[in-house]
Design a protein that fits this description.
Strand order of the largest sheet: 2-1-3-4-5-6
Helix content: 40-55%
Number of strands: 6
Number of helices: 10
Radius of gyration: 17 Å
Largest sheet: 6 strands, parallel
Shape: globular
Structural class: alpha/beta
Distance between the termini: 16 Å
Strand content: 5-15%
């Protein structure tokens, strides 16, 4: 079977890809990466690549999308297909933007220290879905429970990785494999405009913008994401 590596986003794990692994697992050899306490995008990518088969399809969500880009930069000849979901390719616009993000990170970590990760996760879950899904108690509970499985150390490491992220603007136009981009119409964190920009830079790429969907595209619209992935993997 064709190997498919799935890279989760910040405070996410295999649960964020469960619908896709259940639906595609009969046709693809699927592995969902675990980043442990790694606090650097390139370190995460090296760890995934070291354990990867010789050739594989690769999809990343949010932070995992940045890891996917870092991995592609290291070994483009090993990646048969690339999926970039609810993610971004840019570094910081300037020093002021970086300082602002560092301050938000400090505030997030202070909030976790004050109320605990489980309480933080319940609030954060409501910020990463479409406003139209705030009455979906099962979805919110699944997201919050997944996030709460992590530790404050992992949160600190992953937010540091995001803060110190590489800029992939030079890499994106050189992507040469079949590429699928998926964005949520209501995603305030990684808006569709960023994905449209990437799609314009990657020849032959496919862009899917999901209506009434926020940042957690694979969990909010599992059937649509799975169908798009099946078409992409068949290219």
């Amino acid at each position: 079977m064709t190997p498919l590596l799935l890279l989760p986003g910040m405070l996410c794990d295999a649960a964020s890809w469960r619908a896709q692994t259940d639906a595609l697992g009969g046709d693809f050899e699927i592995d969902v990466a675990r980043f442990g306490d790694a606090g650097d995008i390139v370190t995460m990518a090296r760890s995934v690549l070291a354990a990867a088969p010789e050739r594989f399809a690769l999809a990343g969500h949010s932070m995992g999308g940045r890891v996917a880009l870092a991995l592609y930069r290291m070994a483009p000849e090993r990646v048969t297909h690339l999926g970039l979901f609810a993610t971004d390719f840019r570094g910081h616009a300037d020093a002021a933007a970086e300082a602002g993000e560092a301050a938000r990170r400090d505030g997030m970590l202070a909030r976790v220290a004050a109320v605990g990760l489980a309480e933080f996760a319940r609030g954060w879950a409501k910020q990463v879905v479409s406003p139209s899904r705030l009455d979906d108690a099962a979805l919110l509970e699944a997201i919050a429970t997944m996030m709460a499985r992590h530790t404050p150390v992992q949160l600190a490491a992953q937010t540091l990785a995001g803060l110190n992220r590489p800029d992939f603007a030079d890499l994106v136009p050189r992507i040469g494999c079949p590429t699928l981009l998926i964005a949520g119409e209501d995603d305030a964190l990684r808006p569709p405009a960023v994905h449209s920009e990437m799609a314009g830079m990657i020849g032959g790429s496919e862009l899917l913008v999901l209506p009434r969907t926020g940042h957690m595209v694979a969990m909010e619209e599992p059937a649509a994401v799975t169908a798009a992935m099946r078409r992409w993997l068949g290219r």
